[in-house]
Amino acid sequence: QAQLVQSGAEVKEPGASVKVSCKASGYTFTNYYIHWVRQAPGQGLEWMGWINPKSGDTAYARIFQGRVTMTRDTSITTGYMELTNLRSDDSAVYYCVTGYGYYTGWPFDYWGQGTLVSVSS
Amino acid sequence: DIQMTQSPSSVSASVGDRVTITCRASQGIEKYLGWYQQKPGKVPKVLIYDTSTLQSGVPSRFSGSGSGTDFTLTITSLQPEDSATYFCQHAHGFRYAFGQGTKLEIK
């Protein structure tokens, strides 16, 4: 059973960057993509992108292109999501997710506990 | 990117009722459509994937159908614990956008 444990809450000023980590355990890390999804308070789910832990290949949603970078460290089975040039509307809970249905980690059965990122001056 | 449009945005129904939520993709997504249930303060839970495959442990009163661009989640014999927000999500072309959600209230 996959477990995803994320880093703690962050408070950032506009224009800063944030890097969230996601420690995976309970399965073979390189077998399934890790995705990142965010949810602003009271809002819906927004898919941000994925990383293939085996190759390091990534794909990002168009609205995050140029601002998001996803990386991984296979030696410690951890994925990372960095978002730059933060704005107030980036305030949200950020989740790492994966699943066993397809090698692409879909559907999203396993979710991290979420990392609250607050952007405020 | 493919856009997903859900309707209605909210619905209110009684215990025992049948509820239908629809999801439309801006272009064809083959069978790669999933449905999630999210309760307040919890992470989403997979109900259905590949249009109609019920995830293990999900009650059979949940079902999915559709093809191409139009998909449906149906909940029969509504139960109090079905009060939640439901999201559709496509998984076509290595992209995974969600619909905006449908809030289901039990009267």
Describe this structure in words.
The complex is a heterodimer of chains A (121) and B (107). Chain A is mainly β. Helix content of chain A is 0%, strand content 47%. Chain A has strands at 3-6, 10-12, 18-25, 34-39, 45-51, 58-60, 68-73, 78-83, 92-98, 110-111, 115-119. In chain A, the strands form two sheets. In chain A, strands 2, 4, 5, 6, 9, 10 and 11 form a seven-stranded mixed β-sheet that branches. The termini of chain A are far apart. In chain A, 39% of the residues are buried. The mean pLDDT of chain A is 97. Helices cover 0% and strands 49% of the residues of chain B. Chain B is mostly beta strands. The model of chain B has no long low-confidence stretch (mean pLDDT 97). The N and C termini of chain B lie far apart (37 Å). Chain B has strands at 4-7, 10-13, 19-25, 33-38, 45-49, 53-54, 62-67, 70-75, 84-90, 102-106.
Summary keywords:
heterodimer, A: 121 residues, mainly beta, 7-stranded mixed β-sheet, 4-stranded antiparallel β-sheet, 11 strands, 0% helix, globular, B: 107 residues, 6-stranded mixed β-sheet, 10 strands, 49% strand
Q: Roughly how many Å is the radius of gyration of chain A?
A: 13 Å
| Structural class determined from secondary elements of chain A | mainly beta
Question: What is the chains' assembly state?
Answer: heterodimer
What low-confidence regions of chain A span 5 or more consecutive residues with pLDDT below 50? Answer: none
Mean pLDDT of chain B: 97
* Estimated structural class of chain B: mainly beta
Helix content range of chain A: under 10%
Please state roughly what percent of the residues of chain B sit in beta strands, choosing from under 5%, 5-15%, 15-25%, 25-35%, 35-45% or over 45%. Answer: over 45%
Indicate the overall shape of chain A. Answer: globular
Greatest interface by residues involved: A-B, 22 and 22 residues
